């Protein structure tokens, strides 16, 4: 599943970089594909995307879901799978999670705890 997901991610990223999808919104934005999660039967691919800068993320995902059949037709021949997986696009929330965790680690409370651990080691 992981290997196929990585191949799907690579092929979709290549397709998006070539601007083959005719859509006014998708033509004006750069989209990254950080992750693709495949179902165990490899028939469904959940594709997580994020436009550069994070602006209009929901609109970009909606446009990609609108063009999912076109994307499927362009990507699946390169995958050499028994079944052509269906693609569902979602906004990637991991960047938000990274920011939240980073803010927690930089908080005064955590810094105070880290400083007290350093003092006790001396």
UniProtKB/TrEMBL annotation:
Principal location class: cytoplasm
Keywords recorded for this protein, A-Z: Cytoplasm, Ribosome biogenesis
InterPro entries registered for this protein in UniProt: KH_dom-like_a/b, RbfA, RbfA_dom_sf, Ribosome-bd_factorA_CS
Protein location: Cytoplasm
Keyword Glycosyltransferase in record: no
Pfam families: RBFA
Quaternary organization: Monomer. Binds 30S ribosomal subunits, but not 50S ribosomal subunits or 70S ribosomes.
Stated role: One of several proteins that assist in the late maturation steps of the functional core of the 30S ribosomal subunit. Associates with free 30S ribosomal subunits (but not with 30S subunits that are part of 70S ribosomes or polysomes). Required for efficient processing of 16S rRNA. May interact with the 5'-terminal helix region of 16S rRNA.
Family: Belongs to the RbfA family.
Name the record gives this protein: Ribosome-binding factor A
Native source organism of the sequence: Pelagibacterium nitratireducens
